[in-house]
């Protein structure tokens, strides 16, 4: 253990107790948080990364970048920081080690984590809630003949209640799934197939900037004979309500529009979409993976009929999600998984108690601390954005007002995004969604906003979350400023811009 560990441990515990003091949780004591703190493991980056830290510019990036570009067009495997020292450490300290890996606060061995849209670290309180159901309380929640089943079932129903509470739903309307991908598949395919059986309605409306799992579900439905309208977005990333209204036909059975976009953080006009759908008797599904637990949502106020939720975007475990399915007026859908009829017959299969209970706890914390988290994240986001935009030729992608502040997507003109990501290896960032991050293609979301290939290529998404600190933002601002400047100095285009040449007037020779 390093010599700073005891101080760090005390500090971490202090942070824990301060954050949790006002909650009922304080009474039960944060076991995991405390054990991490006393082992000196759970350190917030701010404690050891002073804001005046020197940023070393990695001058090897150019050669590395060239090499991998010339090979497969794939990102090289080493971008995720080797941590051999840490791995050894982890193996030598069972228990604490595993949990240490589940947190992201070990400055010095791991990059600063600013990729909260890809996933969030589990809140230690969530781990606490899950642990008993991984050991002694292992009953099958569907077993009705003994206490093992009953106790697990009871905890799952409590979790369902917490998730329902977070979005203003009734617990009976919450169906556990494996994640938002499954919930999106279930909603889009399920409603469409049910209505097709009825013979009349075979048209769906969605939007070009949806997550791949919605778009791909729609493509599959097209193969099955459905018609799909992919609405464009305006340059601010929002849909045009008049276009949505015009797209609704008598055969339309479903409108699927996400609440918060995962790449640019824009918040679609949910109330208006819901009102329009209800007036036209069309079901309204929303992918809420990036919105639930982050902004206040009420399915009744918004007239939402189906909503997809993901556990790992709300500081809960991966591999679990939920789908809100309205009961009044009842939403009918064909299940995509058949079997024992669990989850109101909509999603068969034995539930995963530790994951469901973890997600429930994550939802409970989100509801209880939303105001606090939201204030902190907004403040950090404003600082980050102001700092980034003070660099010349830098722009925010997506609407500034209708925007979830924890997602800041910025274009740095005259810098290639992949080069910048490589130059920022000490910060875990992404240029877009995790599932497309291996591709060097410009983001289809930014292209839909009308961004040029170059602008889309020069964009980076900064994801701020519950555990992000001021010092991390300071460090990131300093690092980005230095490295953008460094990369621009290598760019011949930048040189021309500095000389006052308008690049649009140049006639490039064709070869
Ligand atoms: C908007 C959106 N929808 C769906 C998903 C998929 O969620 P999950 O990983 O729970 O399947 C994600 C994240 O990956 C997302 O950002
Ligand atoms: S599945 Fe997570 S970003 Fe695409």
From TrEMBL:
Record's keyword annotation contains Metal-binding: yes
Domain Aminotransferase class V: start-end pairs: 112-476
Write down the superkingdom of origin.
Answer: Eukaryota
As its record notes, the protein acts as a catalyst of: (sulfur carrier)-H + L-cysteine = (sulfur carrier)-SH + L-alanine
Annotated keywords = Iron, Iron-sulfur, Metal-binding, Pyridoxal phosphate, Transferase
Write out the function statement from the record.
Catalyzes the removal of elemental sulfur from cysteine to produce alanine. It supplies the inorganic sulfur for iron-sulfur (Fe-S) clusters. Plays a role in both tRNA-processing and mitochondrial metabolism. Involved in the 2-thio-modification of both 5-carboxymethylaminomethyl-2-thiouridine in mitochondrial tRNAs and 5-methoxycarbonylmethyl-2-thiouridine (mcm5s2U) in cytoplasmic tRNAs.
GO molecular function annotation? cysteine desulfurase activity; iron-sulfur cluster binding; metal ion binding; pyridoxal phosphate binding
One Pfam family cited in the UniProt record for this chain: Aminotran_5
| Protein's UniProt name | cysteine desulfurase
Query: Which Gene Ontology BP annotations are present?
Result: [2Fe-2S] cluster assembly; tRNA thio-modification; tRNA wobble uridine modification
What is the organism of origin for this protein? Amniculicola lignicola CBS 123094
KW Iron (keyword) present = yes
For this chain, the family text in UniProt reads: Belongs to the class-V pyridoxal-phosphate-dependent aminotransferase family. NifS/IscS subfamily.
Which cofactors are reported in the record for this sequence?
pyridoxal 5'-phosphate
| UniProt GO cellular component terms | L-cysteine desulfurase complex; mitochondrion; nucleus
């Amino acid at each position: 253990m390093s010599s700073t560990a005891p101080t760090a441990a005390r500090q971490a515990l202090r942070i824990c107790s301060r954050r949790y003091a006002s909650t009922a949780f304080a009474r039960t004591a944060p076991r995991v948080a405390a054990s991490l703190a006393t082992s000196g493991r759970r350190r917030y980056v701010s404690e050891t990364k002073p804001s005046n830290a020197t940023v070393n510019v990695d001058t090897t990036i150019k050669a590395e970048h060239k090499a991998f570009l010339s090979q497969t067009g794939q990102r090289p495997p080493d971008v995720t920081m080797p941590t051999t020292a840490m791995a050894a450490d982890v193996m030598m300290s069972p228990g604490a080690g595993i949990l240490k890996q589940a947190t992201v606060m070990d400055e010095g061995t791991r990059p600063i984590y600013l990729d909260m849209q890809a996933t969030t670290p589990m809140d230690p309180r969530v781990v606490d809630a899950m642990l008993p159901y991984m050991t002694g309380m292992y009953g099958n929640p569907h077993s009705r003949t003994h206490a093992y089943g009953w106790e697990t079932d009871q905890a799952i129903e409590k979790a369902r209640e917490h998730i329902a509470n977070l979005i203003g739903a009734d617990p009976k309307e919450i169906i556990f799934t494996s994640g938002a991908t499954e919930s999106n598949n279930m909603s889009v395919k399920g409603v469409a197939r049910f209505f097709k059986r009825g013979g009349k309605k075979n048209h769906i409306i969605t939007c070009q900037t949806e997550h791949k799992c919605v778009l791909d579900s729609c493509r599959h439905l097209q193969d099955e004979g459905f018609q799909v309208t992919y609405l464009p977005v305006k340059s601010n990333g929002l849909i045009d309500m008049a276009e949505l209204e015009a797209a609704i036909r008598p055969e339309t059975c479903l409108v699927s529009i996400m609440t918060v976009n995962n790449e640019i953080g824009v918040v679609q006009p949910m109330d208006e979409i819901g009102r329009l759908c209800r007036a036209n008797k069309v079901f309204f599904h929303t992918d809420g993976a990036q919105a639930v637990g982050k902004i206040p949502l009420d399915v009744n106020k918004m007239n939402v009929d189906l909503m997809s939720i993901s556990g790992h975007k709300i500081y809960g475990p991966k591999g679990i999600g939920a789908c809100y399915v309205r009961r009044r007026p009842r939403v009918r859908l064909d299940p995509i998984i058949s079997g024992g009829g669990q989850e109101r017959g909509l999603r068969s299969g034995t539930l995963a108690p530790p994951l469901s209970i973890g997600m429930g706890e994550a939802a409970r914390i989100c509801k209880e601390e939303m105001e606090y988290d939201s204030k902190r994240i907004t403040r950090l986001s404003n600082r980050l954005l102001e700092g980034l935009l003070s660099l010349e030729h830098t722009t925010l992608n997506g609407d500034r007002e209708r925007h979830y502040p924890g997602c800041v997507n910025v274009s740095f003109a005259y810098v290639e995004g992949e080069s910048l990501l490589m130059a920022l290896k000490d910060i875990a960032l992404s240029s877009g969604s995790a599932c497309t991050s291996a591709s060097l293609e410009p983001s289809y979301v930014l292209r839909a906003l009308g961004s040029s290939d170059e602008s889309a290529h020069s964009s980076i998404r900064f994801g701020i979350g519950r555990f992000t600190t001021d010092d991390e933002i300071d460090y990131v601002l300093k690092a980005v400023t230095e490295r953008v400047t460094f990369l621009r100095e290598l760019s011949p285009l930048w040189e021309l811009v500095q000389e006052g040449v308008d690049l649009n007037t140049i006639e490039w020779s064709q070869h």
